[in-house]
Amino acid sequence: MKVFDFEEDREKDTYIEIMPLFFRLQHLILMITVIVLALSGFTILFHRTGASEILVAMEGGFEMRGLLHRSSAIVLVALIFYHLFYVLFTREGREEFEKLKLKKKDFTDFYDVIRFALRLGDDYPDLDRYSYKEKFQYWGVNAGLMVMVLSGLILWFESVSMQVFPKWFLDIILIIHGYEGMIVFIILLLWHLYNVHFSPGNFPMNRVWITGKIDREILLKDRPGFADKK
Ligand code: HEM
């Protein structure tokens, strides 16, 4: 059984691009940095466990772990600045950002999906390029990253922070940073991966994050309004 056939994707002219190259590259860098940050962070958060010992060994020792966390944090911050530049100053970025803005339709779509799931309504809404769920993920990631970066910088420049804030504040920041990191990871692992890859119709993997393309027939079925515009 052929599971993935990228060659076939390239040849089929029914495939249309819905995730542009620079968007895919940013997604890839975000994915790698968040995984490295989470694993190197969890090593301290769960330092009393056996799993932490395995992680420290994998990360090349405790000092390397700190270096790994800080260097991937730098890459992540650079990515955030690049993303700002991308949505503000490139045509591709501005177009994508326009589609990611929250609209009244997102709230009514959400309401209709709940009604549909409870069998109170017959029609599943005709979703846009980015559905309410995807927009929630995008804006959630933005807000979550702001907290992670701000709290991470406060922890990183501890001696400066100690001159500005009381000790109890830094203790709370450490708790927020550590546990938000854990929540982010759980959401990505359970919610994002299920929605995108493991849900019916997508399993074992939705290839859009690699090829950027989707079969027009699938789009017509899931988002006829958007497919008509392509
Ligand atoms: C999604 C991204 C991130 C995740 C999942 C994450 C996760 C974690 C976790 C779990 C801890 C341990 C907290 C504890 O000891 O209770 C930690 C510590 C820390 N994080 Fe992050 N973090 C992320 C991003 C960042 C960023 C962007 C920065 C810097 C700008 C940063 C800087 C730090 C620092 C300085 C510490 C203190 C311990 C150390 O030396 O590593 N983190 N992080």
Q: How would you characterize this protein structure?
A:
The longest helix has 32 residues, at 167-198. The chain has helices spanning 6-11, 21-45, 50-58, 62-89, 91-100, 104-117, 132-156, 158-164, 167-198, 208-211, 216-222, 224-229, and strands at residues 15-17, 213-215. Strands 1-2 form a two-stranded antiparallel sheet. The protein has one domain (17-102, 134-227): Up-down Bundle (Fumarate Reductase Cytochrome B subunit), CATH 1.20.950. Helix 2 (21-45) crosses helix 3 and helix 7 (132-156) runs antiparallel to helix 9. It has 12 helices and 2 strands. The model has no long low-confidence stretch (mean pLDDT 91). The protein has 230 residues and is mainly α. It binds protoporphyrin IX containing FE. Protoporphyrin IX containing FE is lined by residues 34, 37-38, 41-42, 44-45, 66, 69, 73, 76, 148-149, 152-153, 155-156, 174, 177-178, 181, 184.
Summary of the model, kept short:
This protein is an all-alpha fold. It contains 12 helices and 2 strands; from the N terminus they run αβαααααααααβαα.
Helical content band? over 70%
Largest sheet: 2 strands, antiparallel
Overall mean pLDDT stands at: 91
Q: What letter string, H or E per element, gives the SSE order?
A: HEHHHHHHHHHEHH
| Rg, nearest Å | 21 Å
User: Which structural category do the helix and sheet elements fall into?
Assistant: mainly alpha
Distance between the termini: 31 Å
- In total, the number of domains comes to 1
CATH 4th-level superfamily: Transmembrane di-heme cytochromes, Chain C
Strand content: under 5%
Let me know the number of strands. 2
CATH class category? Mainly Alpha
**Shape label:** elongated
Distinct ligand kinds: protoporphyrin IX containing FE
**Gross CATH architecture:** Up-down Bundle
From the 3D structure, determine the CATH topology: Fumarate Reductase Cytochrome B subunit
Outline the low-pLDDT stretches. Answer: none
Total of DSSP H or I helical runs spanning 4+ residues: 12
